[in-house]
Each structure stands twice: as C-alpha cells, then as structure tokens.
Amino acid sequence: MKTEIIVIGDELLIGQVVDTNSAWIAAELNKQGWEVTHIATISDEANDINSAISSAFSRVDVVLMTGGLGPTSDDVTKDVLCRYFGGKMIFDESVYEQNLRYFAGRGLQMNVSTRRQAEVPDVCTVIPNPVGTAPIMWFERNEKVLVAMPGVPHEMRVAMKGEVLPRLRSHYGDHDAILHRTLMVFRNTESGLSERLISFEASLPQNVKLAYLPIPGVVRLRLTARGCDEAKLSKTLDEMVQKLHEILRDDIFCDEDTTLAGALGKILKERNLSIATAESCTGGNIAHEITSIAGSSTYFKGAIVAYSNEVKEHQLQVPAQLLQQHGAVSQPVVEYMAKGVQQVLGVDCAIATSGIAGPDGGSIEKPVGTVWIAVRCGDSSCVECAHFGGSRSYIIERSTQRAMMMLIDMLLKR
Question: N or C: where does the chain have the smaller number of CB atoms within 10 Å of the terminal CB?
Fold first, then answer.
C-alpha cells in the first residue's frame, strides 16, 4: 500500500521547529510493508492544506497528517477537513468528558479555547487521544482514508501505535513485507565501496536493492527486500549479508542499523569494557551521544568536561608545565587528559578531545577547526590531530564522530 504524509506548521517552514514526525511515521509504516511515496511540509494556511490533501489523494489511498489541531486561532486543519469532506462541526461529549478528566488529573481548569477541542466534523470517526486534548480524526471517501493527528510528537506516536496502525491493518488487510538489513562500513569512501561491490550488486535478486548511506567516515549499506513471503525474504537477506562479509571482511564493524555511539556501545558491552570521556571543545557531546543509547549505564561511567586549564590540571592531572609549554590544544595535553580520566574514574577505555571550535580563538599555528583527539584502552593509546572546517556545531559534531570511530577502530584491532 502506498501512503503519503502531510505535516502542517509555519514553525516547520521557518526552521523554528525540526520535523521529526514524518521520519518516525515513515519508519513505522515501512515496518508494516507500506510504502511512503511523498512527504509534504505545508503552512497553516487553509488553501495550502486543501491543495495538499487533493494532491495526495490523486496519487495514494492513505494520507496521514499531523499538526494544526490545537485550540488557537492559527490551527485551522480541523475546519479545512470538515469542509473538504462535506460535513459540519458538532460538539462531541465523549471528547469533552475525556478532556475534563485530562485537565483535572493535572490540577488545571479547562478554558473556553480548549473546550472547543471537543468540536469535531460529523463526517469523521473520532479516535480518543489518551495523552492530549486534540482528538484524532479518521476520514473516509471513495475507499480512501485520511487520518489527522496532533503535531506534538509524543501524542502522535501514542496515537499511531495504539490506534492508527492497528486500524489501518484491519481496514486494508495484510500487505507485502519490506525487510531491511544494514551494515556499517569504515575505511572506504562511498565511491570506492561502490566499485568494490559492482559484481555483488549485479548478482542481487530482482526484489532486493542495495543503498549507500554515507556519514563522515562511515558508509551504511542497506539491503531492502520486498515480497509476500517474509520468511523467504529474511533468508535471502541473510545470504546477501554473508556475501558482503566475505567481500568486505574487517571493514564491516557493525551489523545493526544504529548510530556510531550504538556501534561503540555494542562492542564495549560484548567485551565487558567500561568507558569515560574527558572533553574540552566537544563540551560533553561525546558523553551525550553515548548516553543516548539505552543500556549505556552498563559501560559508561562518567565524563569530565574540562573546558578550562584549571580543570584539566586539577581534575585530569595534566601537568601545568605541559599546558604552559604546548597549550591546551596539543598532543601531550590530550594524551594526559585521556589517561587522567581513565585513572580518575577507573575505566578500561577513555576518549579525550581538545580543540578550537570557533568561531574565535584560532591562530596561524592552530586555526579554528584544529582538534586533538586521544583514545585509550588499557595501556594502548592512539592520538590524532584533525582539521575540520565549517561552523562551531559542525566541528563539534565531526570531532565527536571521529573520536568514537578512533576508539571503535582500536577495539576491533585488539
């Protein structure tokens, strides 16, 4: 089944808020074997919403929409949908009673604007929203379906998992499966990897596709298979993955679709190793990435954000003489930082960074983007000086990625 997603909100179009809803919805639909053919981000204008719906229904049978269902004057989606499907607004007592309970449970009193959340088109099926006040609305016309959901990510996800996906499965029945396998590869450029895999790609079954998804220093290879026999598809993908391992060997460092932090955590967990970070220019971002992985408490022990020289000296045991002689952004200092956090926090592995993220602070000898990175495991260490261009946030992001890749590389060589 082909579907389209429409996300509504001026805040998305001006970059004030980042749209995460469409990516999450697309991933969930893909798990069901349903293909997303188009994603539209539109304004809160009635004409734009109406045009987007008409355009989507000219291509697909199912449209999923988020946003514009709030109680304020700029939320016009509900009125547009009412007119589009030829209905009139009615007051739904069940929605009203649920919203009263919702407010009472939080010690709040419902105002007039929120009371209007109970007004819904009489041509829709109302689906309760257990975690918010905007009802989910299911519309049907000419065997096509539109589901309008709140734009608040948490509310939308609860609605999708608890109500919308089960109803879609029931309404349309089973569909072809779509299965994926993802491998993470390093030590290869995207173009170089594609040349190594020319024969492999030529041998793929017609229902299996290979995609290249590069991030700095890493290429994710995603195999996608489509068909009606899920067991057969899974076996086919397993065989293709095995062939990739035979071709790429040690260049594959993870067999999961995850982040670098997830891949690093998997290795640490498998080897029963602990880790800590000592960060200057990255300001705790490496620790943030590591702890974003569920279960990271089993291997991550802590971090010292040593932004000043005083913290480097007193908390990480970096000799004052080294700081005076070489400066904070230097090989000996970052080596001591890694060794210091390893000893202070009593861990097996350590990552340390010290650099100039900018936009100020650079010099001819050490321009903005200069970053020293050190990684340790036991008594083994590796140090690298990187030079990243771009904005402050980009330099921090690249430093974070490179630091984790250095430790992954070290651990895989042990």
Answer: C
Cα(144)–Cα(4) distance, rounded to whole angstroms? Answer: 12
pTM, two decimal places: 0.79
Question: Model confidence over 289-344: pLDDT tens digits?
Answer: 999 999 999 999 999 999 999 999 999 999 999 999 999 999 999 999 999 999 99
C-beta pairs of 233-236 under 8 Å, 24+ apart in sequence: 233/177, 233/179, 233/207, 234/179, 236/205, 236/208
Structural domains in the chain, CATH included, are: 2-172 (3.40.980.10), 177-254 (3.30.70.2860), 260-413 (3.90.950.20)
**Each residue's pLDDT tens digit, 97-137:** 998 998 888 888 888 888 889 999 999 999 989 999 999 99
pLDDT category, 373, cuts 50, 70, 90?
A: very high
